[in-house]
TrEMBL record:
It catalyses: 2'-deoxyribonucleotide-(2'-deoxyribose 5'-phosphate)-2'-deoxyribonucleotide-DNA = a 3'-end 2'-deoxyribonucleotide-(2,3-dehydro-2,3-deoxyribose 5'-phosphate)-DNA + a 5'-end 5'-phospho-2'-deoxyribonucleoside-DNA + H(+). InterPro entries: DNA_glycosylase, Endonuclease-III-like_CS2, HhH-GPD_domain, HhH_base_excis_C, HhH_motif, NTH1. GO terms for molecular function: class I DNA-(apurinic or apyrimidinic site) endonuclease activity; DNA binding; oxidized pyrimidine nucleobase lesion DNA N-glycosylase activity. The gene is NTH1. Residues 195-204 have a biased composition (Basic and acidic residues). It comes from Hymenoscyphus albidus. Bifunctional DNA N-glycosylase with associated apurinic/apyrimidinic (AP) lyase function that catalyzes the first step in base excision repair (BER), the primary repair pathway for the repair of oxidative DNA damage. The DNA N-glycosylase activity releases the damaged DNA base from DNA by cleaving the N-glycosidic bond, leaving an AP site. The AP lyase activity cleaves the phosphodiester bond 3' to the AP site by a beta-elimination. Primarily recognizes and repairs oxidative base damage of pyrimidines. Residues 45-111, 129-164, 180-204 are annotated as: Disordered. This is Endonuclease III homolog. It is found in: Nucleus; Mitochondrion. Residues 184-193 have a biased composition (Basic residues).
C-alpha cells in the first residue's frame, strides 16, 4: 500500500501549494460547496490509471524495496518515532518544493490559481500541452457570466417561400411631442445703482425702465384713469387767490402748505376757503381775508376754529402765529426766497420748503417728496428708502432736473386716483396691465383685462376702420371734507 501513501503525500503537497496561492479560498467563494481536495484526488487517480505500470516506478508497486524506503513517502505503518521524523521531513520538503516552484514561476506577481494554472503539476504533464507560463491565464471571475445579464431579444427566423421576395418593413414609432409656446422674456428691473466709470468716479445709473413708467403715468394723468385728481384743482399751488397782490398770494401759498400736512387736499381746500372769506380785518376799513396783517391780529382761538377741519389744527394754529411774527420781524413781511429761510419757520419741513420755493417764487431747487412720492417710487422698485427725505436725495441723484417740479404733481394725483394707500386699483392701471409694475396685484390685473372691451368697426369689405376701447371707470363727482356733512356746500 506504499503507492497509496505516496499518492496521498503528493496530493498533500499539491494542496499546500494551492493554499499558498489562495486557491481554496477563491474556489469556496466562487462555488459554494465545492470540495477541491477530493476532486484533485480523483484527477490524480485518473492520471495514475492512464500511466503505464512501468512508469509508476518506485511508488506504484508493493516491492520490499519500497516498503523499506526511507524517503519522504515512507509507509505510515512505521513505528511512531520513525513516523514523526518522516512527517517532519515531509513538511520541510513540501516547503522547499513550494519555494522552488515560486522561484521558477514565470510571473513574479501572485495571482489566483485556476485549473489551468495548476495543470502543470499533473502526472501526465509530459503528454498534454500546457500553455506557456508567461501567457495570461483568464480568471474564473471573468469567465462566469454576470447575474444581471440581460437576454438579447431573439429574432424568430422568417420563413421564405420559394420564388417570393421577402420585404422587411421598418416601423418607426413617432413620439407625440407637444411644444409649449415660447414664453415672453421677463423684463429685468434694476433699481437706481452706483457704478464706477472708467475714471474711477462713482456715477448713479437710473432704473432701466423709468422712462417708460414715467411716460405711461403722465399719459394716465393727462387723459387716462388718473386724470381729474384732487391735486389738479385743490393743490396748494392753486389755492392762492388770483385777484390779490403777488406778495399776499405767496403768503397764502405758504399757509396752504402748512395746513396740508397730514390732511387731504379736499379738506385743506375747505379750511383755506374759510380763511380767505371769514378771517376778520386787522382794523376797520381794511380787506377781510387771508393776509399777514390779519393773521397777526386774529385771536388764536378764532384761528383755531377756522381751521379745525385739518389735522393737528391746535399745533398748526401755534405754528402759523409764530411764523407770521418771524416774517414781519425778519423778512419784511414777505416769505423767504431760500430753502434755509423757509425751513427756519416753525412747522415747515423740506417738502414744504421746496414746494413753496417752486410754487411761490418759481425756482426749483429740489423735489418736494410727500407720502405719495415716497410710497409709489418704492413700490416701483426705483430704490429702497426709509423716509421722504431719503427718497428725495435718491431721486435727485439721477432724475433730470426739469422733472423735479412735475414729479410731485404727477405722483400725488396718481396716488389719489389709482395707486391708493389702501385698495389700489391695479385693474385700471396701465402699468399693471402692461407688466411695468412689480407690485401690481395679479388678481386685480386679470379682472381689469376682462373689463376692457374692444369694439372694432368694419366696413362692408371687412376692412377695420377704427377700434374703440370701453373701460369701466368709477368717477367721484364731489369731494367732501373730513367731518363735513354730505349736504354741505364745498
Amino acid at each position: 500500500m506504499i503507492w497509496r501513501e505516496r499518492r496521498c503525500e503528493r496530493i498533500r503537497t499539491l494542496h499546500l501549494h494551492t493554499r499558498q496561492h489562495k486557491h481554496s479560498l477563491f474556489v469556496s467563494a466562487s462555488r459554494p460547496g465545492y470540495d477541491y481536495i477530493p476532486r484533485l484526488a480523483r484527477s490524480v487517480a485518473r492520471h495514475r490509471k492512464s500511466e503505464p505500470r512501468a512508469a509508476q516506478g518506485s511508488w506504484g508497486d508493493n516491492s520490499p524495496e519500497n516498503e523499506t524506503s526511507t524517503g519522504p513517502t515512507a509507509n505510515l505503518a512505521h513505528p511512531p518515532q520513525e513516523r514523526k521524523s518522516i512527517k517532519m521531513r515531509t513538511s520541510r520538503i513540501s516547503k522547499e518544493t513550494s519555494k522552488i516552484l515560486n522561484a521558477t514561476s514565470g510571473s513574479s506577481a501572485i495571482r489566483r490559481s485556476t485549473r489551468t494554472s495548476i495543470a502543470r503539476f499533473a502526472h501526465n504533464s509530459g503528454t498534454e500541452d500546457i500553455k506557456d507560463e508567461g501567457a495570461e491565464i483568464p480568471d474564473i471571475e471573468d469567465i462566469l457570466p454576470s447575474r444581471k445579464r440581460k437576454r438579447e431579444a431573439t429574432r424568430s427566423p422568417v420563413k421564405q417561400s420559394p420564388g417570393k421576395k421577402t420585404i422587411t418593413v421598418k416601423k418607426e414609432v413617432e413620439d407625440n411631442v407637444t411644444f409649449s409656446p415660447a414664453k415672453k422674456e421677463r423684463k429685468t428691473r434694476k433699481p437706481a445703482r452706483q457704478v464706477k466709470n472708467d475714471q474711477g468716479e462713482i456715477e448713479i445709473h437710473p432704473p432701466n425702465d423709468w422712462e417708460e413708467v414715467y411716460a405711461t403715468v403722465k399719459e394716465m394723468r393727462i387723459s387716462g384713469a388718473a386724470s381729474k385728481a384732487a391735486v389738479d384743482t385743490m393743490g396748494c399751488e392753486r389755492l392762492g387767490q388770483e385777484d390779490v397782490p403777488p406778495k399776499i398770494k405767496r403768503f397764502q401759498t405758504l399757509i396752504a402748505l402748512m395746513l396740508s400736512s397730514q390732511t387731504k387736499d379736499t379738506t385743506n381746500a375747505v379750511a383755506m376757503g374759510r380763511l380767505q372769506k371769514e378771517l376778520p380785518a386787522w382794523k376797520e376799513g381794511e380787506a377781510v381775508g387771508l393776509n399777514l396783517e390779519n393773521i397777526l391780529a386774529v385771536d388764536p382761538k378764532l384761528l383755531n376754529e377756522l381751521i379745525w377741519v385739518v389735522g393737528f389744527h391746535n399745533n398748526k394754529t401755534k405754528y402759523i402765529k409764530a411764523a407770521a411774527e418771524i416774517l414781519r420781524d425778519q423778512f419784511n413781511g414777505d416769505i423767504p426766497d431760500t430753502i434755509e429761510g423757509l425751513m427756519s419757520l416753525p412747522g415747515v419741513g423740506p417738502k414744504m420748503a421746496y414746494l413753496c420755493l417752486s410754487g411761490a417764487w418759481g425756482r426749483t431747487e429740489g423735489i418736494g417728496v410727500d407720502v405719495h412720492v415716497h410710497r409709489i417710487t418704492n413700490l416701483w422698485g426705483w430704490h429702497k428708502t426709509k423716509g421722504p427725505e431719503e427718497t428725495r436725495l435718491a431721486l435727485q441723484a439721477w432724475l433730470p432736473k426739469e422733472l423735479w417740479h412735475e414729479i410731485n404733481w404727477l405722483l400725488v394725483g396718481f396716488g389719489q386716483k389709482i395707486c391708493l394707500p389702501q385698495g389700489r386699483k391695479c385693474g385700471e392701471c396701465e402699468l399693471g396691465l402692461n407688466g411695468l409694475c412689480k407690485a401690481a396685484e395679479r388678481g386685480k390685473v386679470t379682472a381689469g383685462r376682462k373689463i376692457k372691451e374692444e369694439l372694432i368697426k368694419k366696413d362692408e369689405d371687412g376692412t377695420i376702420l377704427a377700434k374703440e376701447e370701453i373701460v369701466k371707470v368709477e368717477e367721484v363727482s364731489k369731494y367732501f371734507p373730513v367731518n363735513a356733512a354730505p349736504n354741505s356746500e364745498v
